[in-house]
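Run: sequence + iron/sulfur cluster -> complex structure.
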Amino acid sequence: MSGINAEIQKIISSRSLTASVIEGLAQEQWDAHRDEAKRAARTGRDMYGYASEAFACERKIGFRIWGTPGGDIDFKGRWAMLGGVLGEAFVVRALDNLYKGEAQVPFADGPVHGRADYLYSAPNGDVVVGEVKMVAPFALKQALKAGPKRDHVAQAMLGAAALDANKVRIVYGCLKEDRSQEPFLDWTINVDPKLTAEARASLAGVVDAIERNELPARMFEGKVIDRPVATRSSGAKMWPCGYCPYLDTCAGLTSGVVPLDGVPTTVGKLPI
Ligand code: SF4
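>> structure
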């Protein structure tokens, strides 16, 4: 059993794990998410990208910066989020038991802002940014073969660059019970300056586009898309990003880069 799995098992099997302890753990993690949501729902326009948006659809990041109102997440989304918060809380507690570092460390580094789930010094002198993701069983199986996703690695590396860390540790936890494998996987990776610079340039590029009064092109899975695609189930043509809160607004706009004039916003327009 790997280090993080053994530590989490210790916490879960511990007699001191009571409902109030679980509630406290979940509350800490929830507060960190809520603070991020509050920052996103600010009254002024924040001209930066979040590290958690590394390699996401640039138009989606543009909508967020521009202050376009997004749809609410549904019941299934909220349920998954609650499960994710609790899982993350256990990983953060396990890292804290092992390393006595710092949880939920905010950073601001030029056009990139974010929050590292965990920051610690390892016994060998490495300074490590920990990033925790709770994922579905199929994603955990995929990651077992292919490693963590590039956008998650980039997110952690942006935090490492801002917090002077030389390694990142990505921990994936399984959102649902799957007895065929250990519930947590983790990788410790050297900071890759090239990947960090690429992620930083992409976020800075969205900020620049908004400053030029432009909304970036639609993207899906890292590629620019300009027309709806056939869905696998019904064959109907639609934009493939059903999880995006801006889907309705996006579907009403033309493809490619579009001027921000006419794109809905709850924030005052930029002086240009
Ligand atoms: S609906 Fe899709 S293409 Fe449009 S902003 Fe959202 S993620 Fe990007």
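>> summary
The mean pLDDT is 87. The chain has one domain: 3-200.
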